[in-house]
Amino acid sequence: MINDIRLFGAFAETLNLIRQQLPTIINESKSCLDQLHRDVEVELKESSGQLKKISKENHEEDSRIRQKIMSLKTILSSAEMFLIEHKNLESKIMDTNSLIQKGEVILRSFEEIGQTYLNLNKNNSSSTNSTGDLKIPSMNDIRLLGNTFHFSTKQRLNQFSLQKLESEIKNSRQIGNKISIDNVSQLDFDILKKEGYSIQEIKPNEFSAYKKID
Amino acid sequence: MKKGEYSAQIQHSISTLNELEKKLTNDINNISSNWKDQRKQEFFSKYIRKIQEQMNACKQTHIILQTKVSNIERDLNRLK
Predict the structure, then answer these.
(1) Three-class secondary structure of residue A173 per DSSP
(2) Is A90 helix (H, G, I), strand (E, B) or coil?
(3) Worst-scoring range by mean pLDDT, A115-119, A203-207, B27-31?
(4) In this structure, what is the dihedral angle of CA atoms A58, A63, A69, A75, given to the nearest 10 degrees?
(5) Which of A60-74, A117-131, A171-185, B25-39 has the highest mean pLDDT?
(6) In whole angstroms, what is the distance from residue A161 CA to residue A174 CA?
(7) Between B34, B58, B79, which is nearest A92 by CB?
(8) Does any domain span residue B62?
(9) Which of A154, A168, A177, B43 is the most buried (most CB within 10 A)?
């Protein structure tokens, strides 16, 4: 278990950021190496042009330019090697990005599942708050004997569950004019009275509540 | 990019990679300290290690390239 599921989302965001930025970083360094390669090529071309213009008598300048061209050619082949090394890096970055993308999907799922779980718990707890520990009444829990609807519970009652009981009965279209709730707790007397029920002691310490309905 | 600023540009890429690495490490530490399940954490660590390794490899390649490019820049300047 993790204490804060938002961490998954935050981490997915970081992975997303890395996935977005890696190609930019790679493109930037690639364009820098391309530029270097181009600049050396241009310089080499210029130097070759200069060499053609120099008179054969100017040995010193001729030798200097020739040496420069040699150096530039060495530099150019190094720049070509850099581009090859960089190309290898590009394919590795594509692998990294696909790995990151998988992680992102998993982390987003973790976050989503966690959020769903938390929402479920939240809903359950708000449902518990409104109904107490009572199973929400349905017609399966209600028996019609004569003209009285009987509902039996050993659990706590509250306003929501009592109103639900009454609406279930009304919606059932069965004909009766009284609701009787068996085994009510003394702790629920107040809410029962508030909802129009009368309390009756059936046996010592055993109570039922009843109410006339239209 | 200005002519002759090749290695500076690669240095910029390295700095961005460093920032991303820092952010990644920070998030990993946050999750690890919050994750109680040892087995899942182990699986998670393997995945993260792989990403860290690949990012580190990317950074190392950039560092090597930067050194080489910087040497070339120096050679180019000598030729002028």
Answers:
(1) coil
(2) helix
(3) A115-119
(4) -150
(5) A60-74
(6) 20
(7) B58
(8) yes
(9) A168
Asked, for residue B32, whether it belongs to a domain, the answer is yes
Q: Tell me if B61 and A85 make a contact (CB, 8 A cut-off).
A: yes
> Which chain B residue is nearest to residue A106, measuring alpha carbons?
B44
Give the separation between CA A126 and CA A110, rounded to whole angstroms.
24
What are the backbone angles phi and psi of residue A4, rounded to the nearest 5°? -135, 110
Distance from CA of A75 to the nearest CA of B (A): 7
Spans of all domains in chain A? 6-129, 139-212
Tell me how many domains chain B contains: 1
C-beta separation of A139 from A173 below 8 A: no
Query: Distance (Å, rounded) from C-alpha A145 to C-alpha A196?
Result: 21
Q: Is A84 on the interface with B (CB under 8 A)?
A: no
Question: B40 to chain A, minimum CA–CA distance in Å?
Answer: 9
Closest CA of chain A from B67, distance in Å: 11
Residue B1 inside a domain? The answer is no
Collapsing DSSP to helix, strand or coil, B50 comes out as helix
Residues of A in contact with B64 (CB under 8 A): 85
DSSP single-letter state for residue A137: P
Give the model's confidence band at B5: pLDDT under 50 very low, under 70 low, under 90 confident, else very high: confident
CATH 3.40.630 fits A139-212, yes or no: yes
What's the pLDDT band for B35 if we cut at 50, 70, 90?
Answer: confident
Range of the domain at B63: 6-79
In a domain, B65, yes or no: yes
